[in-house]
Amino acid sequence: MDGFKRMTKVLPRLWHDRVTIVGVREVVDGPFTTTADVNVCVDRPGKVVLGSLKASEQTLFGTDTYDAKLIIDSAIKIAAGDLITVTDVNGNVTRYRRASKGYTGYVSHQEVAMVRDEKAKEVVADGVGNV
């Protein structure tokens, strides 16, 4: 068990994606309790692992949909439906609109199932995608 505890400190050094999570949480304002968007974490290390991304399943309606899994430290409390923004090592930003609650059954990290579901964006300047 002690080896897993040490792994908790080492693993984030291997994750080069940067993760920001925003979620709706209860906020107490004087005598009132309401909900508000709250930053759960900002610019934390994480790793995105892609699931299925098959060209045969893509449609003609211009959507870019695939399953992914976020690996991040288990200290972060992620609720189902939180909005997750990931910046990869190349500076590309991807927003995941649907996410599960974090699975925290591992000692060293947690996993969050995510779905990217947005309209595909094309950049066409010279006909081959180069700006």
What count of structural domains?
1
- The name CATH uses for the topology is Thrombin, subunit H
Element order, helices and strands?
HEEEEEEE
Mean pLDDT: 80
Q: Number of DSSP helices?
A: 1
Overall form: globular
In terms of DSSP E residues, the strand content is over 45%
How far apart are the termini?
51 Å
CATH class: Mainly Beta
Helix content: under 10%
Supply the key terms.
globular; 131 residues; 7 strands; mainly beta; Thrombin, subunit H; 7-stranded antiparallel beta sheet
Protein model, in words:
- With 131 residues, the chain is mainly β.
- The chain is globular and about 45 Å long.
- The chain has a seven-stranded antiparallel β-sheet, with no helix packed on it.
- The model has no long low-confidence stretch (mean pLDDT 80).
- The chain has a single domain (2-53, 62-119), classed as Thrombin, subunit H (Beta Barrel), CATH 2.40.10.
- The chain has one helix and seven strands, in the order αβββββββ.
List the helices and strands and how they pair.
Blueprint: H1 2-10, E1 17-29, E2 32-50, E3 63-72, E4 83-87, E5 93-96, E6 98-99, E7 110-119
Antiparallel strand pairs: 1-2, 1-4, 2-3, 3-7, 4-5, 6-7
Summarize the structure.
With 131 residues, the protein is mainly beta.
